[in-house]
Hints:
Coiled coil: 17-80
Structural class: alpha+beta
Radius of gyration: 41 Å
Mean pLDDT: 83
Strand content: 5-15%
Strand order of the largest sheet: 5-12-7-8
Low-confidence stretches: none
Order of helices and strands: HHHEEEEHEEHEEEEEEHHH
Keywords: Bacterial flagellum, Cell projection, Cilium, Coiled coil, Flagellum, Secreted
Shape: rod-shaped
GO molecular function: structural molecule activity
GO biological process, one term: bacterial-type flagellum-dependent cell motility
Number of helices: 8
Largest sheet: 4 strands, antiparallel
InterPro entries: Flagell_FlgL, Flagellin, Flagellin_C, Flagellin_N
Distance between the termini: 22 Å
Number of strands: 12
Amino acid sequence: xxxISSQQIFSGGINRLQExxxxxxxxxxxxxxxxxxxxxxxxxxxxxxxxxxxxxxxxVETYQRNVDLADNRLKQEESALASSIDVxxxxxxxxxxxxxxxxxxxxxxxxxSELEERLGQLANIANTRDAxxxxxxxxxxxxxxxxxxxxxxxxxxxxxxxxxxxxIDDGVTVPISDNGKDIFVKVPAAVTGEHSxxxxxxxxxxxxxxxxxxxxxxxxxxxxPDDISxxxxxxxxxxxxxxxxxxPPVVPSTYQSGEPFVVAGVEATIxxxxxxxxxxxxxxxxxxxxxxxxxxxxxxxxxxxxKTSPDxxxxxxxxxxxxxxxxxxxxxxxxxxxxxxGGRMNAVESTKTFLxxxxxxxxEIRSQLQDVDYAEAISNLSFQSFVLQAAQQSFAQVSQxxxxxxx
Length: 407
């Protein structure tokens, strides 16, 4: 015979009521929070998977912030470069206008004045700042103004040659900045000539221009030399020697004063040089010139060159021609950078789409594991409430029973 004491009855009843009440409270908590798993004990396996999914979502959110930052920086740079191309195009139009031989001195001064305004506009674009106030073209030195105007009016680069990169996914980085030196300063300059070793005072070199880019590239496929020296020997032959030690052919090879000749695709004309006099003329074929320097030289030339003499007219024509070449090179340099930016922006956009898809997928899985089914939870709550009430009534009746009632 099993004996059941009153204490056992009370203890069992209370434990059962506590159990039912706990289940009811858990269901109420699920409904109020909308989560099926509120603590690990609710579902240990699901809780572990939810924790990993939370970590994954946190990682994705961090990279999404980086993607947004990269996208904003690249779009701002792209906009600045587009604006700079517009300014340079207007400067080019003014340069073509300046080449009109019928312009008066006042007309040239008027063009020079607008060029000064456009130069300042271009400098403002090159000194663009981001939302945090940093200069986007200063390399790593974001707090340093990219281009500063010196007391003589020239613009010089103040930043470094660094390029910032940002990680936008595991193992995926993208450059988010470009230094102004590579874009605005290291611009290939027009080929020019100078009388570098002067023996004959009235000798000069003029009309220097590239007439065959294919020939120039073919002559120096491994990289352009810094310069090509031109001399005329005692026999009246034109001898060319480049800084790499080579001797590119000259056509025609016999010197005639005032007659053009071609060296590796570069045409030039030497005048009044006595054969074998020891004069050396230098063709600068690998020079770099800041786009600011090009505009500054153009402004200076418009204001100072006297076109009344043949030499002055020739110098003016060379100035206009070289300026147009340099401006075209500057535009090409910026367009190449825009193309590079487009590739980066495509990479950022692709990564952004991937991260969004990953976030949606992870959220769906987490929702399946964590979110409560309200219809089921409310049904359970009603059933648990009914069971608890029945248990409470049963316990109340049983607790009133006593052996002494039967005596």
